[in-house]
Design brief:
The protein has ten helices and nine strands. It has helices spanning 39-50, 62-74, 89-103, 126-153, 166-169, 175-195, 213-218, 222-229, 240-251, 269-272; strands spanning 18-21, 24-27, 30-34, 54-59, 78-83, 108-111, 157-162, 200-207, 262-265. Strands 5-4-3-6-7-8-9 form a seven-stranded parallel beta sheet, with helices on both faces. A two-stranded antiparallel sheet has the order 1-2. The termini are far apart.
Length: 274
């Protein structure tokens, strides 16, 4: 893990300010986005930085992370990128401890790290299975375990997990992906049950058919995309803004009574398509 320049972001000393965006009041916070250099995580980093938050984000891809940090700063935002292997408990704990030691607290965690690839069950190797679960489920567990003590000490915090509709449908690449994302739901609900009374607010979004690099890998041709769109009742793919708006709502105070829930974002495809 490369060392990060923690002086990149100035410590916040002023009282929280408030802005109204798309009807949601978003107070300025310290946000940690795990898996924030591409796709849904990247859009969240931009959105929260534009809101005036201090955004810490991690990713295995150093080049993409450093590029995003530069873009955020050029737009006047505050961000810190840390290269991170989510399958390492030592790295995860060290990163979160370093943020807490330098900035005092983390108000919200958005866990967006994940991998997928298409493979049938009979062709899946043990390595394929283990790697998928290490990133998609064990990495999630490490992030939550590392951040919980500080959130409990501060009286609570927000956690939003980027899951997948595959946990409901079994689609999305195979048993390895659907299984790991299903595990994320069970983990989320167990954390909600254990810590709701101590101020931990945790929920999961389950996107399907969202225009991301991951979707491009699964549906690389124009024809395959058109066939996919025809299965969606709204006849359109979801956008990164759709997922980010949902995450921003779940981070906001307006969602405080939503707890241990799965928010399906799929244009009606899961339950309405014939």
């Amino acid at each position: 893990m490369d060392k990060c320049c923690w002086l990149t972001v100035e410590r916040l000393t002023s009282k929280a300010k408030y802005e109204v965006k798309r009807g949601v009041v978003m107070s300025q916070k310290n946000i940690l986005v795990i898996g924030g250099a591409s796709g849904i995580g990247k859009d969240v980093v931009f959105s929260r930085a534009n809101n005036g938050d201090t955004v810490f984000f991690t990713d295995l891809n150093k080049e993409a992370g450093e590029s995003l940090q530069k873009q955020v700063e050029e737009n006047g935002g505050k961000s810190v990128f840390i290269q991170h292997n989510v399958t390492s408990w030592q790295e995860t704990k060290a990163i979160i401890d370093n943020i807490l030691n330098n900035y005092g607290k983390i108000d919200a965690l958005v866990h967006s790290a994940g991998i997928t690839f298409t493979k049938s069950c009979d062709n899946l190797t043990y390595h394929d299975w283990r790697k998928t679960f290490q990133v998609n489920l064990t990495g999630l567990f490490y992030s939550i375990k590392a951040i919980l003590p500080s959130m409990l000490k501060n009286g609570g915090g927000k956690i939003v997990i980027v899951g997948s509709g595959s946990s409901i449908t079994g689609s999305g690449g195979g048993v390895h992906y659907a299984g790991s994302k299903g595990g994320a739901i069970g983990l989320m609900r167990a954390v909600a049950k254990e810590y709701s009374h101590q101020g931990i607010n945790i929920n999961l979004i389950a996107p399907r058919v969202i225009k991301t690099p991951m979707l491009e890998e699964l549906y690389p041709t124009k024809e395959s995309k058109e066939q996919l769109i025809n299965t969606i009742p709204t006849r359109k793919l979801g956008t990164l803004s759709d997922t980010t708006n949902a995450i921003n709502f779940l981070i906001s105070d307006e969602s405080s009574y939503i707890q241990g829930n799965v928010l399906l974002l799929d244009g009606g495809r899961t339950y309405l398509s014939s």
